[in-house]
Amino acid sequence: MSDAKAKREARASCRLLLAIASALVTLSSGIGCHSIRCKSFWIGPGGPILSCLAHSADADNHLKSLLVKNQGIQNGPLSAGWRVDRGGHIETLGVRFHGFAWEPEDFQELVLIGPYGNERLKTEQISDGVGVPVVIVRRGHQSASHERRVLGDPREAFLGEVSAFAATGVLSSDGGIIDFYNPVIIRHIEIDGLEVRLAFDLTASIAYALHYYPQTRFRDFIFPDRSEDRSRLTMLEPFEPDKIPLILVHGLLSSPDTYGEIYNALRADPVLMDDYQVWVFKYATGKPFIRAASDLRAELDRVIELYDPELSNERLRSSVLVGHSMGGLITRLMISYSGERVWDSVSRLPLEALVADESTRASLAERFYFDPHPMISRAVFIATPHRGSSTAGRSLGRFASALVVQSDSGIDRVIEENPGVFRETLADGLPTSIDMLDPDQPFLKILAKLDSSERVTKHTILGVGGPLLGLFQTDGLVPLDSAQLAGVVSERRIRTTHNGILKHPETGLELRRILFDHTETLGK
Q1: Which of 112, 116, 51, 104 is CA-nearest to residue 78?
Q2: Mapping DSSP to helix (H, G, I), strand (E, B) and coil, where does residue 475 land?
Q3: DSSP letter at 155?
Q4: Regarding beta strands 34-38 and 43-44, do their DSSP bridges make them parallel or antiparallel, or are they unpaired?
Q5: d(CA 424, CA 505)
Q6: What is residue 85's three-state secondary structure?
Q7: pTM metric for this prediction
Q8: Where are the beta strands (DSSP E) in 183-318?
Q9: DSSP secondary structure string for all residues of 271-288
Q10: How far is Cα 391 from Cα 477, in angstroms, rounded to an integer?
Q11: Cβ(325)–Cβ(278) under 8 Å?
């Protein structure tokens, strides 16, 4: 038999094996993810070896070896190529990127995945297949990123100082190029005319980010007015105008990392992530939530200013806002009309009649006068104390409130300069976040009476797994009747606790259902 005929028969056998394996993987893992073509077969030292299943593992092991052994000699971003030591001679392999929102210069560090774990992540989104899963790290202070930030590039405005994202590397047929794919939206590639599943580890990048995420929740609660703790909206990936923003707002004594498990679950669905971009809002939780809502409003206004001044982008106008616990009260303020009710709940005089300078009056107006934000068209309330929590009024709540050190000099000064004008709500200064969760707090009763935008669709997810208080169900902190809200189109009850609800798999499934309904409503 001629060599050419032997190779043709080997190729045919290889294709048959790949087709059978691909069909089995498809049946076990489901359909509905993106694919990309990749003409490739491995060339080894002894000559051409066709990329059958057994040898795909050999190619991936060779690539992993190249990454491990040469990690220490890299001297620039991944986009400059991957340097390989060939016995004292340095060779640079080419690098290509597929399916990422990131720019090539954002691929600054490659982290090989070893054993890892994080208490905030209960599941792992991992799959076998072709390629080597890695974590890519981008640091905002490095070279091109820093230069763009200094120049005021809109791409840098809402990105975090450190970003970590998943990638899968595949070595080309001649061993000269490493192709990196975005496994969040690309799950299959085409090798030699046949579709095969891409290996991935979507959880490792989240675990990496959580490991290095600064834990400031207690400081943010006790010292909410420190300048370095300003409220901030962060995009987990660069802004994409063709994707719907999913904005996550954390609760009291918490931070965005509490959404780690939900983010991990949502990223497992490539169809969903092809439609959504995830943003998180961090704020100092010792502040009254009316201040945090004002800060979030300002951040979203800045998004419009930078990316869509005319607000003509339907995707931007269709943002989904998700709030857990006190974050749900912030969400409520973001979709409501204040009218005069909010200001009247704290003052006996109109705002314009106060003795105050213009900057203080403007600051008060930003907090106490608002309309539904035009970006938000759907809101999800998770374990939200719409009518407060009795814990806030108990001795433990009062003790925690007493720990908070606020230094809002503008509010303090205007109270002093206007004696007898402010009601008991502000008589002793601005209330803390815990004060505002007391069921007897007048502001909560006012909030319950505010009209909300008719264009916003509302959903509730609540917990009923806490101990019973008399005859009333609770999640351990928020009673059932406080977590319920009139006018929602769906209410999902989950047998879990207040702090466990964001880690419960049914929460992720319900949010996924809501998000798919949202895209269908938009006509996709």
Answers
A1: 104
A2: coil
A3: G
A4: unpaired
A5: 43
A6: strand
A7: 0.84
A8: 186-191, 194-197, 200-201, 232-235, 244-249, 276-282
A9: HHHTTEEEEEEE--TTS-
A10: 7
A11: no
Sign of CA dihedral 349, 354, 355, 356: positive
Residues 6+ apart with CB under 8 A from 23: none
Rounded Cα distance between 250 and 151, Å, is 31
Token output for 310? 């005319």
pLDDT at 46 over 60: no
Alpha carbons 67 and 391: distance in angstroms, whole number = 53
pLDDT of residue 503: 94
CA dist 248 to 136, 154, 210, 224, Å? 23, 21, 16, 20
pLDDT tens-digit series, residues 396-430: 333 333 333 344 556 778 888 888 888 876 655 56
- From 295, 162, 283, select the one nearest 226 (Cα to Cα): 283
* Residue 180 pLDDT: 97
- Count the neighbouring beta carbons within 10 Å of the beta carbon of residue 237: 20
Q: Give the span between the Cα atoms of 171 and 404, in whole angstroms.
A: 55
List 82's β-bridge partners, or say none: 93
**Lookup: tokens for 85:** 């030591």
What are the Cα distances from residue 186, in Å, to 223, 378, 509?
43, 28, 21
The CA–CA distances, whole Å, from 158 to 239, 293, 423 equal 8, 18, 38
Those residues with Cβ within 8 angstroms of residue 239's Cβ, 6 or more apart along the chain or in another chain: 154, 155, 158, 277, 303, 307
For residue 425, give the nearest of 444, 450, 406 by alpha carbon.
444
Q: Tell me what percent of the chain is helix, strand and coil, each rounded to the nearest 5.
A: 40, 25, 40
Cβ burial of 291 (10 Å; 0-12, 13-18, 19+) is buried
Token pair 């912030």 in the structure block, residue: 330
Confidence bin at 458 (pLDDT 50/70/90):
very high
Which residues on adjacent β-strands are paired with residue 382? Answer: 324, 461
466 and 500 in contact (C-beta within 8 Å)? no
- In angstroms, the Cα distances linking 278 to 231, 319, 443, 482 are 17, 10, 31, 28
In this structure, are strands 109-112 and 162-171 parallel, antiparallel, or unpaired? unpaired
| Bridge partner residues of 463 (DSSP) | 494
